[in-house]
């Protein structure tokens, strides 16, 4: 069996040949659009803020007009659940189309790094011949030029990736300044450049085969009706020369193996290494065109279709995956739109729970107020009157910066003689888009220390 790994476990370096055809042209367009979208998104701004940025340093996250902070991370569960089941649905219906057409590993390798390799080192036969030959000036120049180009591409990918975590203007500022002024960002960019270079220059298809769990999950996600790139064995076998009337359509030219980026033989059936890139389908169609035979010996089809049966696209598991994916995305959307735009928590000041001042008992609290809106907002803090309690709130109408937070001191006093136990306290915090009530307990010497902090219900 052909593979990028030999029987003894050693690496069989894959040098895929160039391929032309309808799928190759379509993939180039898709790769171009995906790379352009990925590179341009950090530049796009919506209402003056980045369209997509994960500012981990300040715990601020922007997602196409919506803003979030660290307290909204629970929403990721529903979002990732919806995306996960949507990918499962896509796989059960269309096989590994994600791997061959949209996975970043495939997009960057086939859309950026391999074209540079082919430009500097030539077609497959020239690369293989040069690799087997002695080191001379031509070989050294081409190898050094290729790897320098790979480093530049890896640095480009790394810096755009960093641009999703810092603003683009700040990224350019960091790039122009000395690395010691921004050591963390410089370390991340350097480390990512090294990782991307090692991956796309050497590791390549081994990431899909050895590390990515998605390929190993296909055995449970794909069934007999899922679309795969497969070989029509009934039409192709037995293999033989084109002039042999007893032979099938396959002339055993091995062109499908030569163009495969993972080095497999598609004629051996569905395999873990296959990423459904359709290179073998284009290569086989090209050979069939030269022989004057119908295309489709290697094609997109289900295992049932390749065996001569009918393909059922809509089946129970597809509906189930679709329902779960839609449910996760709907819940994430509803939760995002109905989430509160601020958080308020009543916290007791650390230290003594109360202070005696003559005949008065004083409790000290702080209200931790977080504005989850992207713009500054003014809030109103209103203690609810309670018999025997006096309030001091020096910041009754605080203004909180967008995605910022403040601590508001609150002092509560009561006459010691009038205390007959712990007293509940309630403070109402009104925001631009709603209100919250935070609760706590006033304690004194005539009763045990009860609840020391309150949270918004």
UniProtKB/TrEMBL annotation:
Family matches, as Gene3D superfamilies: 3.30.70.20, Immunoglobulins (2.60.40.10)
KW Ribosomal protein (keyword) present: no
Record flagged with keyword Membrane: yes
Superkingdom to which the source organism belongs: Bacteria
Domain 4Fe-4S ferredoxin-type: 238-269
MF (Gene Ontology): 4 iron, 4 sulfur cluster binding; metal ion binding
Record PROSITE patterns: 4FE4S_FER_1, 4FE4S_FER_2
Membrane-spanning segments: 29-46, 73-94, 148-165, 185-201, 318-336
Annotated keywords: 4Fe-4S, Electron transport, Iron, Iron-sulfur, Membrane, Metal-binding, Transmembrane, Transmembrane helix, Transport
One Pfam short name: Fer4_18
One of the record's GO cellular component terms: plasma membrane
NCBIfam families the UniProt entry points to: ccoG_rdxA_fixG
Record-given protein name: Cytochrome c oxidase accessory protein CcoG
UniProt source species: Polyangium spumosum
UniProt lineage: Bacteria, Pseudomonadati, Myxococcota, Polyangia, Polyangiales
Gene: ccoG
């Amino acid at each position: 069996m052909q593979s990028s790994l030999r029987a003894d476990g050693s690496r069989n370096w894959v040098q895929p040949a160039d391929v032309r055809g309808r799928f190759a042209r379509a993939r180039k367009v898709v790769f171009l659009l995906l790379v352009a979208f990925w590179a341009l998104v950090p530049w796009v701004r919506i209402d003056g803020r980045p369209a997509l940025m994960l500012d981990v340093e300040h715990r601020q996250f922007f997602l196409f007009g919506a803003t979030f902070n660290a307290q909204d991370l629970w929403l990721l569960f529903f979002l990732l659940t919806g995306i996960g089941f949507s990918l499962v649905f896509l796989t059960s219906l269309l096989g590994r189309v994600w791997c061959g057409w949209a996975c970043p590993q495939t997009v960057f390798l086939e859309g950026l790094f391999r074209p540079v390799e082919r430009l500097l080192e030539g077609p497959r036969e020239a690369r293989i011949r040069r690799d087997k030959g002695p080191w001379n000036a031509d070989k050294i120049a081409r190898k050094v030029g290729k790897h320098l180009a790979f480093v530049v591409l890896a640095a480009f990918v790394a810096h755009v990736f960093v641009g999703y975590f810092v603003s683009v203007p700040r990224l350019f500022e960091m790039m122009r300044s000395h690395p010691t002024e921004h050591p963390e960002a410089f370390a991340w960019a350097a480390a990512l450049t090294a990782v991307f270079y090692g991956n796309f220059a050497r590791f390549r298809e081994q990431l899909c085969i050895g590390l990515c769990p998605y390929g190993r999950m296909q055995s449970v996600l794909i069934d007999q009706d899922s679309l795969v790139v497969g070989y029509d064995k009934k039409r192709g076998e037995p293999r033989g020369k084109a002039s042999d009337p007893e032979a099938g359509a396959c002339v055993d030219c091995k062109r499908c193996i030569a163009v495969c980026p993972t080095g497999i033989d598609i004629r051996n059936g569905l395999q873990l290494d296959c990423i459904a890139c359709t290179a073998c389908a284009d290569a086989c169609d090209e050979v069939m065109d030269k022989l004057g035979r119908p295309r489709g010996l290697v094609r997109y089809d289900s295992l049932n279709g390749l065996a001569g049966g009918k393909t059922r696209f809509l089946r129970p598991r597809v509906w189930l995956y679709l329902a779960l994916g839609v449910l996760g995305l709907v819940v994430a959307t509803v939760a995002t739109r109905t989430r509160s735009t601020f958080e308020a928590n009543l916290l007791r000041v650390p230290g003594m729970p109360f202070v005696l001042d003559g005949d008065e008992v004083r409790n000290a609290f702080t209200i931790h107020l977080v504005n989850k809106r992207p713009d500054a907002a003014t809030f109103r803090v209103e203690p609810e009157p309670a018999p025997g309690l006096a309030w001091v709130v020096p910041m009754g109408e605080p203004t909180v910066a967008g995605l910022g937070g403040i601590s508001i001191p609150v002092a509560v006093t009561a006459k010691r003689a009038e205390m007959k136990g712990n007293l509940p306290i309630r403070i109402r915090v009104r925001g631009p888009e709603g209100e919250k009530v935070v609760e706590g307990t006033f304690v004194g010497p005539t009763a045990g220390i009860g609840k020391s902090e309150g949270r918004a219900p």
